[in-house]
Amino acid sequence: MTDSQTVNGGRLLVDCLIEQGCDRIFTVPGESFLAVLDALHDSPEVQTVVCRQEGGAAFMACADGTMTGRPGVCFVTRGPGATNASIGVHVAMQDSQPMILFIGDVDRAMRDREGFQEVDFQAMFAPLCKWAARVDDAARIPEYVARAWATALAGRPGPVVLALPEDMLLDEVSGITPRPAIHRPAQVPCPDAMSTLMDLLADAAAPMAIVGGAGWHAKAREHFTLFAERIGLPVAGAFRRQDAIANSSPVWAGNLGYGPNPKLVERIKLADLVLVVGARLGEATTDGYTLITPEHPGQTLIHVHPDPEELGRVYRPDLAICADMAEFAEAAALWDDDVVPFDAGEEAHLEWLEWSTPRPGSYALDMASCVAAMRDLLADDSIICNGAGNFSGWWHRFWHYNGFPCQLAPTAGAMGYGVPAAVAAALRHPERTVVALAGDGDFLMNGQELATAVQHGCDMIVVLVDNGAYGTIRMHQEREFPERVSATTLANPDFAALARAYGGWAQRVETTAEFTAALTEARERKGLRLLHLVIDVEQLSAAGATVSGLRARARG
C-alpha cells in the first residue's frame, strides 16, 4: 500500500497485521467484520483458518502465540461470538501468552442503545486481558494495532482485545500506512543483581530452580540448561511448563502441579534457596501457596521475571531481577566466576526417572502402559496438547517432554483446549507429530474442531480417554461425599464413529494391546486419526486414586 492509496478500514487493518508479521488468523466469520474478510480474500500472506466455535478459534490463537512467541490472532463477531471467545482470552492471560482478539462491533451510531448483540467490550474484557479498547477512527488503526502488538508482547505477555465498529471498517482513508513491525523489548539483567545471585548460590547448600512461563523460549531454554548443568542445579518445571528444559537433561527434576513426585515436593520444602525464572508461582505450581509460601521462612527466594509488576506482587523476593528470560539465561550461562557444583542435580534427575517410569497395572486398558507405548512409537519431540482433566495426569507424569515447544496445555485449567491447540500445532509444525489428548467430557467441549482439522489438512492424532464421567470432579466427589454420585456421569456418543463422520480414521480401543496396535497403524497414516480409549472409571488418576479406594478410606 502506498501513501496515496485510498483504502477502507478493513483493508488497512489487514495490511497492519501483515506488517507486524501475522501469517495466520483463526476465525468464525461474522457480518460485523465483512470488510476484514474481504481484505483477507486478497491477502495470500495470511492464512484464514475457519473454525467451528469461537472458543475453539480463541484457543487456537492462544496456542499459536505460545509456539511463535508473537501474538496469535483471532477474529470473532460481537455478542455471542465475543462471549464464546472469552475463554481463550482468560487462558492467554493466565498462561502469559501473547494473543489479540478482534471483535466486530455494532455501528458507532448505535452504541449504548443495547442494540443487536451489543456488549460493552472494554468493561467486559478489562479484568481478563492486558488492554481492551475500541477503534472508532479508521485513520488510527495503525496506532491501535501497533499498540496492541506491543502490549501483548511486553513484560508479562498476554491478550489484548480490540473492538471494531462495523461502519468504521467501511470508512475510507488515504495517506495512512501501517506502522513498522514491533519486536519484544529484551531487557538485560543488572550485572550487580547477577553478582548477588551468584553469591547467594555459592552460599546455598540445597538450591532448587523452578522455571518456565512468561517469555520463555528456545534461547532461554538452551542457555538456562547450560547454566544449570554446569553447576548441577536441580530444575523443576512450573505447572504445565514441562518443556522448559529437555527432560533428558541430567538436572531435570520433574514437574510441579497436581500429583507431583513426593520426592520432588520434599526437595522443594528442604531447599534453602529457590531460584524462580519466568514462573509466577501460581496456585497449581505451589499447591495452593503452601509448598512455597508468600513469606517462605527459612528459604531465600530469587525471582526473575520480565514484568516488574509481577515481582513482589504475591511473593516477597529476597532478590528480584527484572529481565528478559533469554537475556537472563545467557548472562547466567556465560558468568565467569565459578560456582562450586552441586551433587543434587543428578540425584533429583534419578528420582524423576524412577517416578516417570510407567509400571503396568491390572486394568484391561492401563493408562500408564499406553503412555509407555507412545514413548516407544512416537518421536520424543512430538507436540502433546491437552485440555483439563485427570486423563492428562498420565502424560504429565510419564511422558518425557524433550522437544520445544512440545507441550501445549492450559495452566488456567480450561477444558476443551487440546483439540484446538493440536489444530494450531499441526498447522504451525506440519513436520512434527502432533497429539491431542482429551477426556470424554473435555473432548465434547470443542470436538467440533475436528472439522476444522480435516478442512485444513491437519496431520494429528487424537487420544480420547472415555471413562463415562467427569473424572476429576468424580474423584473430588468420592473424597468429599463418597458413594453419592451426582452430576458427574456422562452418556457419550460413539467417538470413533464421530471421528469417521468428520472424515478421519478411528479405532475403538478397550485393551492395552489394542492401543499399541491402533497407535502403530495410526502412526503410518496421515490426516486426522482418533483412538477412542474406553477405560473403567475406577482408574481415576495417575497418582493411583480409585473409586473403591476413596470409598474405603471414607469408611475408615
**Name given to the CATH architecture of the largest domain:** 3-Layer(aba) Sandwich
Shape: globular
What do we call the CATH homologous superfamily of the largest domain? Thiamin diphosphate (ThDP)-binding fold, Pyr/PP domains
Report the total helices. 21
Q: Quickly name the level 1 CATH class of the largest domain.
A: Alpha Beta
Largest sheet: 6 strands, parallel
Rounded average pLDDT? 96
* Poorly predicted runs of 5 or more residues: none
> Beta-strand percentage?
15-25%
Find the CATH topology of the largest domain.
Rossmann fold
How far from one another are the termini?
Answer: 75 Å
What does this structure look like?
The chain is an alpha/beta fold. The protein folds into 3 domains: 6-174, Rossmann fold (3-Layer(aba) Sandwich); 191-353, 3-Layer(aba) Sandwich (Rossmann fold); 357-555, Rossmann fold (3-Layer(aba) Sandwich), CATH 3.40.50.970. A 6-stranded parallel beta sheet has the order 3-2-4-5-7-6, sandwiched between helices. The protein has a 6-stranded parallel beta sheet with strand order 11-10-9-12-13-14, sandwiched between helices. A 6-stranded parallel beta sheet has the order 16-15-17-18-20-19, with helices on both faces.
